[in-house]
């Protein structure tokens, strides 16, 4: 890299210009770089040869002695000119300069007569086309209009506005257009100011609203808006998108015209002019679009680089503008053609050159162009080539090992092998672009490499470079070989029971299967050796129903994918229809008629049960009522008949206990006490006292003659009928009808001990 000054580059480039007929024209071009440098000129892409009319000056500029829009032979000096500079390292081309002839057409809009009442607004307009843009001035009664009068507003596009008209404003008006090509006068128009100022109310009205404008940055935009009404309306401006207009470079001309100086791209938008009646919300609006263009300019220039042979060179060129510029690349002044070796990416912003060699040494130019202008930038590629580098590796061979593996072998270079530090194997799918290439490093003593993880049935290209500390050798010859085909992988298989005789085999499509033409489906009863099938299914089918099966046996289902290379491994599943149906359908189908009958029967049973229960409750209540009444009557009779002698308290045993109404001593001394109640009489008096329940519980009343002391009368009773109470002190024992909660059981053999 020789530095910036050594690079071939333009110091001055030709610029757009407007030439005057029969006048000389000079197009400037100045270049710097390593000499010798040759400069040539082109017009519309055709080389310009020196002639009497056009020739190149010593400083490289082009001189046109007499510019003519149309020559006698039909040719024209108008067109696009560019300057080319070339030295030992390459060639560069300047931006294109557009040269046009100065012209002026006739007026196509002339001012018109107007009659306006005093206090009103008058507007005159004239339009004319020319190059450069004509300057239009106004005259009143053949004298220039006094622009110091604030009621007179002159707009750049040939408009004259007069507000607050007075009688002295009446007169004859015309405009004068001037440029380097000519001077022209428009027709005259008379202004008549009539009557006095009217006081009649008039709604606001916009006479002329803003026009759509397309301008370039740094120019000046004038948006016209003139309104009338009584009272005089107030004119205001806004943007339709709500963004503020700003204040810098903004000026109001006359009573409502908006002027924006030094335009930028941010000024683009739709502008709204509003005429408002003072003190009210009554308003009228008009709008116009302003488009501001920006010529292309570079955000990032391409940089000159030096790279070793066999490596990759990348140039980056980023430009901006409005509208967004298009980027074109040149190589030594010629349009760059892309290939597998040369790639453009990112909307042509990035130029990549792969595996560079000495033929790629050149000056590469980036040209950015839009409707507002163009620009260019250049950079040089230097390919480094050291003496004594190894020659390319020899006898490169590639052998297919499997569907995913290829073995590449080679022989040592013929020359300069002592400094070799290793080899690099370059691998790429044959159908892929070069930027998809990848490399594998190999040690200097290894002359073969096993390349794995390749795709089946795919062609790959291989070449080798030998590397030293000073650079790489040229690439070896390229060899191309294809991997073997591969059978598909095992598909995933799921079995779903549809009913007692049908199952559905279902599988999922997957890229892991690889290339396959379809599927083969087999099934059999597990106790049989013969399969049913194969059922051939296309590759887009993912389910198949197997029907007419026997629910009492277990089936084996097998699925595999196949292609032109053979059958892949199969996936096997077992299924039992009966067990699966029992699991998936735990409840039998509903017998709706039977269930309805059962429901009716159950309802009837419930009703009958309720009736029986109510009847039982009624009978129980009646039984209790009548039983209690009979018990009261019985108690009354017993009290009248039973007479029990009193036992003195002193004769009672202090520790006497009563067991169910009778003491053990009473039973032992029954014959000695004399008087004893006859059992028959007791049973007659208390017919209900000895119930069947008491008999069941073991309470026994003995109907026997008086016993001696060696005869024992035994009463048996369960433990829950056994109670111990203190002997009562009442003169008479309590009757069995006593309501005392601690009443003892009835004494069946009372005695008088005293």
UniProtKB/TrEMBL annotation:
<dbReference type="InterPro" id="IPR036179">
    <property type="entry name" value="Ig-like_dom_sf"/>
</dbReference>
<keyword id="KW-0393">Immunoglobulin domain</keyword>
<keyword id="KW-0325">Glycoprotein</keyword>
<dbReference type="GO" id="GO:0098609">
    <property type="term" value="P:cell-cell adhesion"/>
</dbReference>
<feature type="domain" description="Fibronectin type-III">
    <location>
        <begin position="392"/>
        <end position="486"/>
    </location>
</feature>
<keyword id="KW-0677">Repeat</keyword>
<dbReference type="Pfam" id="PF00041">
    <property type="entry name" value="fn3"/>
</dbReference>
<dbReference type="InterPro" id="IPR036116">
    <property type="entry name" value="FN3_sf"/>
</dbReference>
<feature type="domain" description="Ig-like">
    <location>
        <begin position="8"/>
        <end position="100"/>
    </location>
</feature>
<feature type="region of interest" description="Disordered">
    <location>
        <begin position="722"/>
        <end position="754"/>
    </location>
</feature>
<dbReference type="Pfam" id="PF13927">
    <property type="entry name" value="Ig_3"/>
</dbReference>
<keyword id="KW-0812">Transmembrane</keyword>
<feature type="transmembrane region" description="Helical">
    <location>
        <begin position="606"/>
        <end position="626"/>
    </location>
</feature>
<comment type="similarity">
    <text>Belongs to the immunoglobulin superfamily. DCC family.</text>
</comment>
<keyword id="KW-0472">Membrane</keyword>
<keyword id="KW-1015">Disulfide bond</keyword>
<dbReference type="InterPro" id="IPR003598">
    <property type="entry name" value="Ig_sub2"/>
</dbReference>
<feature type="domain" description="Ig-like">
    <location>
        <begin position="204"/>
        <end position="287"/>
    </location>
</feature>
<feature type="region of interest" description="Disordered">
    <location>
        <begin position="644"/>
        <end position="680"/>
    </location>
</feature>
<feature type="domain" description="Ig-like">
    <location>
        <begin position="105"/>
        <end position="192"/>
    </location>
</feature>
<dbReference type="GO" id="GO:0016020">
    <property type="term" value="C:membrane"/>
</dbReference>
<dbReference type="InterPro" id="IPR003961">
    <property type="entry name" value="FN3_dom"/>
</dbReference>
<dbReference type="Pfam" id="PF07679">
    <property type="entry name" value="I-set"/>
</dbReference>
<keyword id="KW-0732">Signal</keyword>
<dbReference type="InterPro" id="IPR003599">
    <property type="entry name" value="Ig_sub"/>
</dbReference>
<feature type="compositionally biased region" description="Polar residues">
    <location>
        <begin position="644"/>
        <end position="655"/>
    </location>
</feature>
<protein>
    <recommendedName>
        <fullName>Immunoglobulin superfamily DCC subclass member 3</fullName>
    </recommendedName>
</protein>
<feature type="domain" description="Fibronectin type-III">
    <location>
        <begin position="487"/>
        <end position="583"/>
    </location>
</feature>
<dbReference type="InterPro" id="IPR013783">
    <property type="entry name" value="Ig-like_fold"/>
</dbReference>
<keyword id="KW-1133">Transmembrane helix</keyword>
<feature type="compositionally biased region" description="Basic and acidic residues">
    <location>
        <begin position="663"/>
        <end position="673"/>
    </location>
</feature>
<dbReference type="InterPro" id="IPR007110">
    <property type="entry name" value="Ig-like_dom"/>
</dbReference>
<dbReference type="InterPro" id="IPR013098">
    <property type="entry name" value="Ig_I-set"/>
</dbReference>
<feature type="domain" description="Ig-like">
    <location>
        <begin position="295"/>
        <end position="382"/>
    </location>
</feature>
């Amino acid at each position: 890299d020789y530095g910036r000054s050594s690079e071939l580059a333009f110091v001055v480039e030709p610029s757009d210009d407007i030439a005057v007929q029969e006048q000389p024209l000079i197009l400037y071009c100045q270049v710097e770089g390593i000499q010798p440098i040759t400069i040539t000129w082109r017009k519309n892409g055709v080389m310009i040869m020196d002639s009497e009319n056009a020739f190149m000056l010593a400083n490289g500029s082009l001189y046109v002695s007499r510019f003519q829009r149309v020559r006698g032979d039909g040719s024209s000096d108008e067109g696009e000119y560019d300057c080319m500079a070339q030295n030992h390292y390459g060639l560069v081309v300047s931006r294109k300069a557009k040269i046009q002839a100065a012209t002026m057409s006739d007026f196509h809009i002339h001012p018109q007569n107007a009659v306006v009442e005093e206090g009103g607004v008058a507007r005159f307009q004239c339009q004319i086309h020319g190059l450069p843009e004509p300057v239009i001035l106004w005259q009143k009664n053949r004298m220039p209009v006094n622009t110091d009068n604030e009621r007179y507003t002159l707009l750049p596009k040939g408009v004259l506005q007069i507000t607050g008209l007075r009688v002295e404003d009446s007169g004859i008006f015309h405009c004068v257009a001037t440029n380097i090509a000519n001077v022209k006068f428009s027709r005259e128009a008379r202004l008549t100011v009539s009557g006095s100022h009217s006081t009649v109310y008039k709604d606001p009205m916009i006479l002329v609203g803003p026009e759509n404008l397309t301008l370039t940055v740094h120019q000046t935009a004038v948006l016209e808006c003139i309104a009338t009404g009584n009272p005089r309306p107030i004119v205001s401006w806004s943007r339709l998108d709500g963004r503020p207009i700003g204040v810098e470079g903004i000026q109001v001309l006359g009573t409502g015209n908006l002027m924006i100086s030094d335009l930028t791209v941010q000024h683009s938008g739709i502008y709204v002019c509003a005429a408002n009646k003072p003190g009210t919300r009554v308003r009228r609006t008009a709008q116009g679009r302003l488009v501001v263009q920006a010529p292309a300019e570079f955000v990032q220039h391409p940089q000159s680089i030096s790279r070793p042979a066999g490596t990759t060179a990348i140039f980056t060129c980023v430009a901006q503008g409005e509208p967004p510029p298009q980027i074109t690349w040149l190589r030594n002044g010629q349009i760059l053609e892309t290939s597998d070796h040369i790639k453009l990416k990112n909307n042509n912003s990035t130029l990549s050159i792969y595996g560079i060699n000495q033929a790629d040494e050149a000056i590469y130019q980036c040209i950015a162009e839009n409707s507002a202008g163009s620009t260019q930038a250049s950079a040089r590629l230097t390919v480094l080539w050291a003496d004594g580098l190894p020659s390319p590796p020899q006898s490169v061979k590639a052998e297919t090992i499997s569907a995913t593996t290829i073995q590449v072998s080679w022989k040592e270079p013929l020359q300069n092998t002592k400094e070799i530090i290793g080899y690099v194997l370059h691998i790429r799918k044959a159908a892929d672009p070069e930027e998809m290439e990848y490399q594998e490093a190999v040690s200097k003593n290894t002359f073969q490499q096993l390349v794995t993880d390749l795709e089946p049935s795919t062609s790959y290209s291989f070449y080798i470079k030998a590397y030293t500390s000073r650079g790489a050798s040229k690439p070896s010859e390229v060899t191309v070989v294809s991997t073997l085909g591969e059978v598909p992988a095992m598909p995933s298989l799921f079995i779903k029971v549809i009913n007692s005789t049908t199952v559905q085999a279902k599988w999922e499509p997957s890229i892991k299967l690889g290339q396959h033409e379809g599927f083969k489906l087999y099934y059999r009863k597990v106790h049989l050796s013969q399969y049913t099938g194969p059922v051939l299914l296309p590759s887009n089918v993912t389910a198949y129903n197997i029907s007419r099966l026997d629910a009492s046996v277990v089936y084996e289902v097998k699925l595999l994918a196949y292609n032109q290379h053979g059958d892949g491994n199969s996936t096997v599943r077992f299924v039992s229809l009966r067990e699966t149906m029992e699991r998936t359908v735990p409840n039998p189908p509903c017998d709706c008629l039977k269930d309805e009958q059962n429901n009716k029967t159950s309802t009837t049973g419930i009703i009958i049960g309720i009736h029986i229960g109510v009847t039982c409750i009624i009978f129980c209540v009646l039984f209790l009522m009548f039983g209690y009444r009979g018990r009261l009557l019985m108690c009354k009779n017993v009290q009248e008949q039973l007479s029990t002698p009193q036992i003195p308290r002193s004769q009672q045993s202090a520790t006497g206990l009563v067991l169910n109404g009778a003491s053990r001593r009473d039973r032992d001394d029954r014959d000695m006490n004399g008087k004893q109640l006859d059992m028959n009489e007791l049973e007659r008096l208390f017919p209900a006292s000895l119930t069947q329940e008491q008999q069941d519980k073991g309470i026994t009343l003995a109907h026997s003659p008086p016993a001696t002391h060696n005869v024992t009368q035994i009463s048996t009773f369960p433990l829950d009928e056994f109670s111990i109470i203190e002997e009562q002190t009442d003169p008479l024992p309590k009757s069995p009808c006593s309501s005392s909660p601690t009443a003892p059981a009835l004494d069946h053999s009372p005695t008088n001990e005293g």
